[in-house]
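thread from #wetlab-drylab

HS: before we spend reagent money on co-crystallization trials with 1,3-dihydroxyacetonephosphate, can we at least see a predicted complex? here's what I'd submit
DV: go for it
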Amino acid sequence: MTGLVSPAVDEVVLWARTSQAVDAMNLEHRNPNHLVDYTLAPNVVATSDLAVAVRDVDAAILATPSAYLRETCRNLASHLAKNARVLVLSKGMERGTHLLMHEVAAQELGNPTRVAALSGPNHAEEICKGMVSAAVVASEDAETAAYFQGLLSGPTFRAYVSDDVRGVECCGAVKNVVAIACGIASGMGMGDNTLAVLMTRGIAEIGRVVAALGGNPMTCMGLAGMGDLVVTCTSEHSRNRSFGRALVAGETLDAYQARTHMVVEGAPASESVLELAQERGIEVPITAGVHSVLYEGRPIDEAMEGLLTRVPRTEFYGMEERDTASKENQC
Ligand SMILES: NC(=O)C1=CN([C@@H]2O[C@H](COP(=O)(O)OP(=O)(O)OC[C@H]3O[C@@H](n4cnc5c(N)ncnc54)[C@H](O)[C@@H]3O)[C@@H](O)[C@H]2O)C=CC1
Ligand SMILES: O=C(CO)COP(=O)(O)O
């Protein structure tokens, strides 16, 4: 995001946790751990001091893995000005509470109207090369969404706004689970038909969860839904997809994350989405299948067979009237 924001502001301050990363970014203008060939703009500076990072800022952009967002916001709360706007990039659903990331940020930082969430098909590997991308900025407050739309929009990046922040964030959390399923299918040697089936039934599954959380299922047709689902299920850059392939090859989640130093958000999301679905009676067969493989020791072949041997149904899309979320014959 620094490459998108830096042309629009005087200075971007990056918070990093290690002095090694901070020194490399300040001295060489490169991140030594991620996108190592990318040169940071001259007006980007780094610090490991959170208080310094947000001193006198107009806005903060939060991009920690979802599991650390609450802790990061808690640490930030006493340093961030009360009127500073907050944009959340993290994609996930909190375990136990089933809160979306903008809700976690708002709980810890106060004033939900200053919080927005950004989601869409946005692999940093392509954005930093100036390849055309787009995303949606969602907030319950139109001014906050418009503020970040203005901050991020540029010649190669188009930002749309939405007031359906729950729908946008829910899409971002659940599509990662579907992408793991696609990676597994790809690793098993399945073809394009299989991926198309998983993605299409995946968007229906996402739609049911969006509806249950009070979002608009039509948001699934947009950049945060269909757009991000397509890129995450098909791109070579996707961690969730490539983890699914690695799993078939015998690698564990911990080993994959340790080798890549990157987060696989679909794994914890499968836990929280399944918890939520069981609590609310939502059918999430793809999520349940991924969860069973990751956390219940179910063999991959058996999970795939389980999906295929379900009772034949009418095709519902997950985007019908909201009360269809509770109908039995829905998926
Ligand atoms: N909104 C959007 O357009 C996009 C959002 N994302 C989301 O952003 C979040 C971060 O993804 P990436 O930047 O790709 O991460 P990454 O997978 O490249 O790396 C994870 C990073 O988390 C850091 N980290 C580990 N423990 C931490 C802690 N306790 N506190 C803060 N940071 C910690 C690691 O140092 C590492 O740099 C994820 O939730 C991901 O799904 C990712 C791509 C696009
Ligand atoms: O959300 C993303 C792209 O929009 C990143 O997806 P992965 O975490 O699977 O790489």
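DV: The radius of gyration is 20 Å.
HS: ok that's useful, forwarding to the group
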